[in-house]
Amino acid sequence: MSENDATPVRPERSEESLEFPYLAQLFAPGADPEVDDQIVARRTGMWGSGQGSGDTSGFNGLERTTALAGITTPPFGGWFDQIADRMAELVPGFATHVMVHRGEITFFVLPDKLVELCRALRDDEDLRFEVCPSVSGVHYPEQTGRELHVVYHLLSYTYNRRIRLEVELPDSDPHVPSVVPVYPHANYHERETWDMFGVVFDGHPGLTRILMPDDWVGHPQRKDYPLGGIPVEFKGAVVAPPSERRSYNQ
């Protein structure tokens, strides 16, 4: 056999790429899983800056930065790789990044991929995340352009596994598709997240307030929501409402 007839030699592949061939398709085009922009709060002082805040602790120069755990690149280890590989095979390019922290995995999901991914997680025999026990919101004012996060906890009864999905939304346009068509019991959780944080779940069958009165203005668990309140009367004294007390840098 001549040199020109020789069979081309394929480049060697790592054990991870052979066992989990779809992990490379996990991230959306243009997503940079190396970006570590996870700062969620910057605080000064013990309870405030000391500049008119009423903080008399003496720790006015203290500076603290609070950040999320960071970003994890594949392989993730253990069964995390198995499910991530299968998720990427069924819904390619659904994630912006992934975080593994304290034995838990969180997939940060593009909003337009959320419902498709949830349906695959519920129905695929290799995944079988049959239940969404919780949907909740978080407000990170420091994360410009993705201030509001919606967090979905998923549970597999079949395999006794738990994962977390997280969607990041801009404060200016906090819309995300409802997962009620996939997980009907998420109905009330999405209503609560709308009530407390102002996230709009498109396609929800009845997105109304569930804790606050229907005519309530604002969303009380956002960090920019005013404390408000009314005076509380005690024998011989009156305690001012929270909005009139000392202002702490929370």
Automatic annotation (TrEMBL):
UniProt keyword Metal-binding, yes or no: no
User: Recorded E.C. number(s)?
Assistant: 7.1.1.-
Gene Ontology CC annotation, any one = plasma membrane
Q: One Pfam family from the UniProt entry?
A: Complex1_30kDa
List the coiled-coil residues.
none
The cross-references to Gene3D superfamilies, in alphabetical order and at most eight, read: NADH:ubiquinone oxidoreductase, 30kDa subunit (3.30.460.80)
The answer, when asked if Cell membrane is one of the entry's keywords, is yes
Keyword field:
Cell membrane, Membrane, NAD, Oxidoreductase, Quinone, Translocase, Transport
Q: Which SUPFAM superfamilies match?
A: Nqo5-like
**Top-tier EC class:** translocase
Question: What InterPro entries does this protein map onto?
Answer: NADH_DH_suC, NADH_quin_OxRdtase_su_C/D-like, NADH_UbQ_OxRdtase_30kDa_su
**Major localization class:** membrane
Where it sits in the cell: the answer is:
Cell membrane
Q: How does the record classify its membrane topology?
A: Peripheral membrane protein
NADH:ubiquinone oxidoreductase 30kDa subunit domain location, by residue?
Answer: 109-229
One function term, GO molecular function aspect: quinone binding
**Catalysed reaction, written as an equation:** a quinone + NADH + 5 H(+)(in) = a quinol + NAD(+) + 4 H(+)(out)
Function, in words? NDH-1 shuttles electrons from NADH, via FMN and iron-sulfur (Fe-S) centers, to quinones in the respiratory chain. The immediate electron acceptor for the enzyme in this species is believed to be a menaquinone. Couples the redox reaction to proton translocation (for every two electrons transferred, four hydrogen ions are translocated across the cytoplasmic membrane), and thus conserves the redox energy in a proton gradient.
The UniProt similarity line reads:
Belongs to the complex I 30 kDa subunit family.
Q: Tell me, how does this one assemble?
A: NDH-1 is composed of 14 different subunits. Subunits NuoB, C, D, E, F, and G constitute the peripheral sector of the complex.
**Descriptive protein name:** NADH-quinone oxidoreductase subunit C
Q: Which organism is it from?
A: Propionibacterium ruminifibrarum
Gene name? nuoC
